[in-house]
Amino acid sequence: MNKSLRKAVIAGNWKMNKTRPEAKALIEELKPLVANASCDVVACVPFTNLETVLDAAKGSNIKVGAQNCHFEKSGAFTGEISADMLKEMGVEYVVIGHSERRQYFGETDITVNKRTKAALAAGLKVILCVGEMLEDRENGITEELVALQTKIALKDVSKEDLKNVIIAYEPVWAIGTGKTATSEQANEVCAVIRSVIAKVYDKTAADGMTIQYGGSMNAGNAAELLAQPDVDGGLIGGASLKAPDFAVIVDAATKG
Ligand SMILES: O=C(CO)COP(=O)(O)O
After folding, report:
1. What ipTM goes with this model?
2. Confidence of residue 1 (pLDDT cuts 50, 70, 90)
3. Phi and psi of 228, rounded to 5°?
4. Helix, strand, coil share (%) of the chain residues, nearest 5
5. For the CA atoms of 45, 113, 83, 10, what is the dihedral angle to 10 degrees?
6. Which of 72, 98, 124, 232 is the least buried, fewest Cβ under 10 Å from its Cβ?
7. Is 70 labeled as catalytic in the residue annotation?
8. Are the CB atoms for 62 and 43 separated by under 8 Å?
9. Cα angle at 128 between 243 and 213, to 5 degrees?
10. Which of 98, 100, 107, 132 is flagged as catalytic?
11. What whole-number distance in Å separates Cα of residue 226 and Cα of residue 237?
12. Hey, is 244 helix, strand or coil?
């Protein structure tokens, strides 16, 4: 299927950055720069910035996302935020299973699956992150590992709900390191993910699935990565904190 029939999505993952005034300033700077984008533009911001960013992005084409949500609807889960809480605010997207959550906060494939289902049930769109560690790549198990992560994360997710899922392939060794996967490496694994979707669901679902690459994507390398046939967008960390850089990536997706 022609990739141009899929929706390209460029999402910024601000991670643990920006106070509210800084967040507002970044969105204000970004708005005119991405106003003519033909791809979807998303800012996934810290919980504390959600209201500010929702407000600042109002009337623009910037959509707003959170960076995690809990799998229970409510209850004694100190420090957690439910999917319903995000939905009620007007948040549209949520990042689930980011490698930093897997590495530092005990996130597992099983909890990623639970959070994914909870977010979809609440009506949120999920940016589901998968990706191998350097050791996995060196051991030659990247494809199997990413396939496994994808399958478990999507267990019991219906074909209808899958329409609200984007998958982000983020090799852990490329995140925040300045070491980008080559465009061939990125495309290869995105294609593996697409074939998993075809097997678990069907070809139509696979053809329609937006699959992003993430990991040191920046203004200089985005065009080549986004031109790959199976790369439909990007999940951007560091470069999403600078409006002009992020806007170049959005432009590249519009062309790619
Ligand atoms: O983790 C990432 C996005 O979720 C990528 O981060 P960097 O773009 O800073 O490498």
Report:
1. 0.99
2. low
3. -70, 145
4. 50, 15, 35
5. 30
6. 72
7. no
8. yes
9. 55
10. 98
11. 16
12. helix
Percent pLDDT > 70 in the chain is 99
Q: E strand or H helix at 122, and its extent?
A: none
Residue set of the binding site for substrate: 13-15, 176, 216, 237-238
Domain boundaries, the chain: 3-255
| Choices 3.90.1170.20, 3.50.50.60, 3.20.20.70, 3.40.190.10: CATH for 3-255 | 3.20.20.70
In this predicted model, what pLDDT tens digit does every residue of 229-250 receive, in sequence order?
Answer: 999 999 999 999 999 999 999 9
DSSP 8-state secondary structure symbol assigned to residue 239 = G
What is the C-alpha to C-alpha distance for residues 86 and 82, in angstroms, rounded to an integer?
Answer: 7
d(CA 75, CA 62): 32
236 Cβ closer than 6 Å to some ligand 1 atom: yes
